[in-house]
Amino acid sequence: MEIFSSIIGNYHGADWAGMILQCISIYFLGNQKRIGFLMGIGGNAGWFIFGILTGSIPDLLSQCVVATLNCRGYLQWHTSNIEDSPPWLLSHKIHSSFPHPLL
After folding, report:
1. Residues 13/45, Cβ–Cβ less than 8 Å
2. What is the domain range of residue 42?
3. Where does the pLDDT of residue 87 fall: very low under 50, low under 70, confident under 90, or very high at 90 and above?
4. Which 8-state DSSP code applies to residue 70?
5. What is the pLDDT of residues 38-72, one digit of tens each?
6. Is the pLDDT confidence value at 1 over 70?
7. Which phi and psi (to 5°) does residue 72 adopt?
């Protein structure tokens, strides 16, 4: 058990949970999946607990702001029509005459 507690650390795994959920959140949002916002809120909760355990007021405030932005993103998520998207967001397969260098 001593190895387990040394890996988890003094913060009851809140920092690990925050880090893992934030990475999952970025992955899902990068793949344009709405669930990424929920994973982000979970990560914010982990980092918020970490902030409580460390007594970091700036961490608590920043996690509240980022969690609010994640909630806003989740609530405002919608699939837009392809005509509404700017050309640089569209796949080069759709606009083969205007391929974007990063797509």
Report:
1. no
2. 2-77
3. low
4. H
5. 999 999 999 999 999 999 999 999 999 999 999 99
6. no
7. -60, -45
Nearest to 30 by CA among 15, 19, 44, 40: 40
pLDDT, position 8: 73
Contact predicate 61/35, CB 8 Å: no
Give the C-alpha distances (Å, rounded to integers) separating 41 from 30, 48, 53, 63: 16, 10, 18, 9
Rounded to the nearest 10°, the torsion over CA 103, 41, 67, 61 is -120
95 falls within a domain: no
Tokens of 101: 């260098």
In a domain, 91, yes or no: no
- Higher local confidence (pLDDT), 2 or 40: 40
Q: State how far Cα 86 lies from the chain centre.
A: 24
**CA–CA gap between residue 99 and residue 59 (Å, rounded):** 42
Instruction: Write out the two tokens for 58.
Output: 């700036």
Per the domain annotation, does 93 fall within a domain? no
